[in-house]
Design a protein that fits this description.
The protein is 78% helix and 0% strand. With 414 residues, the chain is an all-alpha fold. The protein folds into 4 domains: 2-50 and 57-184, no CATH class; 187-271; 275-326; 334-363. Residues 162-217 form a coiled coil.
Length: 414
Amino acid sequence: MSKVLSTIVSKNTYNKNSLESTDNSSSITEETKKHRKKVSVIVPDHSANPFHMSGDVDFFLLRDQKRNKSHSEREQKKKLRVHQKMTYSSKVSAKHTSLLRELQLEDKTEDQEACTEAEQLHAFHEHTAWKLSMTKEKKGESDNINKYINQKRQMFLIQYALDMKRSEIQRLEMLATKEEAELELYFTEPQQLLDVFTKLEEQNLSLIQNTQEMEETLEELSFTLKNTQIRMDREVNQLKQWITTLMMAITKEEETAAELELKARVFHFGEYKGAQEDKLLESLNCKVLDVYRQCVGVQQESNLGTVQMLTIIEHQLDELLENLERVPQVKIEQAEKAKEKERRQRLREEKAKMQKQLQEERLQRAQARAQAEIKKKRGRRLVFRSRPPALKTKEEPENELLDKEKEEQLFFFT
């Protein structure tokens, strides 16, 4: 009975998974021979578990083959060009697709092998000798439920493993299709990437050229700004100096105008007589003539009046001032210092001369006092009458008056 169950289980497993080879037929014939001999000793039956590992598979050989294959693939990748190499995502997608293709090929081959084995088994089952041996074994064998349960359990586990593999294969297929749908190369040809790089390089060069031009213009503008600033500062300082000189000239002219106005008033009110006026005019004419000779020269003198000489001197002064504006400031400062030094020297000499003259006058007066007769004072000395003291009026400040008015208004009208 156990052999019948084992044959049924092996038949089912052959139909579903196609994993047993034709060696089972030989094992079955050997078992029938043993049954005919009626050996009482129980021999361990290796065909009870139909799923066993074949002895002709060498795992070490497979490992070496896989290692050599990976080494050869690496060497080939080193020799490839840049555009022929693959990225990680493309490699994964390629692996998925290749794996799917291999699995499909394996499934096809396994299906074909299972069909052929099923046909062979069906033909073998139809054989009369096999039928007789199987019927004899059914009579002699005892039921073994434990063995049947174990076989069913193994079948279930194998079926579960196969279902899990199929689900994993389906999941990988879905992932591969999804990745193939999502991943789309932006550049289809390497020339497109080179064109983009050339465009970016041209843009970069144009930007660099623009920045250099802007820097040059900025330097030129900064240079011109500095020059204009220096020139404007120089002009401002020059204008300030001109303003100071003009203010000094204005003050001098105002002083001279005041003196002339005073003299005109004196002449107008008749304080001076005709002879004195003539003397003053003659002295003025002499002074103007002296200035005219110093400024213009003697060759142009031809009985000119005082007013005419003054106008000529004024024109000459204007020309000199215009020429003075063109002269550098350093030379003007040097000339001013020299003139200031001469003026101080002349003032010192005049002051010393005046002091000497005053000293001589003092000595003369002292000598005259010493030689004069002594007059004795008699009586009381006459003095002027003193003025009476001025009366001081106490003035109240306006703020206090305003405060008092405010207080009265607040007191009476609130």
